[in-house]
Amino acid sequence: MRVLIVLALAASVVGCTHWSMDHHLNNAYRSYDRGHCDSVMLELSLAERYSRPQPNRRPDIQPEVSMLRGLCLERTKFYLDAAQTYEYIINQYPDSEYAYRARARLQTLQQLGHYRTSTAAVARPAPL
Fold first, then answer.
1. Tens-digit pLDDT profile for residues 47-97
2. Whether pTM exceeds 0.85
């Protein structure tokens, strides 16, 4: 009987963590739909916290979280930060759906004049 109780408690802890992660991600999407990017960032941070230490964590959550973070950065006119977030997705998860979407967002930012792909604008130290 004790074994069943311990197994039930262990299963509920794992389920609660997964539920919390999904709950925060869903809240982030709701906040994004309402235009509340401060709340989005908080919810995404909470979702990431619940995903990291768990052995049953979802490996697919990070590109999704990063994509929503980039969209919010873009919405709040932090275009360079958004572009860097999209580049992170492309570099870390090149075969994912989110990399495809990130490339499209970078192209849109470039067409709107908010992002340049050339690195000529980056100041480099002069050779000695």
1. 888 766 555 556 678 999 999 999 999 999 999 999 999 999 999 999 999
2. no
Q: Which own/partner pairs from 58-62 qualify as long-range (CB within 8 Å, at least 24 positions apart)?
A: 58/18, 58/21, 60/96, 61/21, 61/25, 62/92, 62/93
In the chain, the number of structural domains is: 1
**Which tokens go with 103?**
């490339």
- Of 106, 115, 40, which is closest to residue 72 (Cα–Cα)? 40
Query: What's the distance, CA 51 to chain centroid?
Result: 12
The two structure tokens encoding residue 99? 């990399």
Q: Are 47 and 21 in contact (CB under 8 A)?
A: yes
Contact by Cβ (8 Å): 102, 114? no
**Is residue 27 within 8 Å of residue 40, measured between CB atoms?**
no
102 within some domain? yes
- Domain for residue 6, yes or no? no
Tell me the C-alpha to C-alpha distance, in Å, between residue 71 and each of 11, 18, 35, 68, 98. 35, 24, 11, 5, 12
Position 91 in a domain = yes
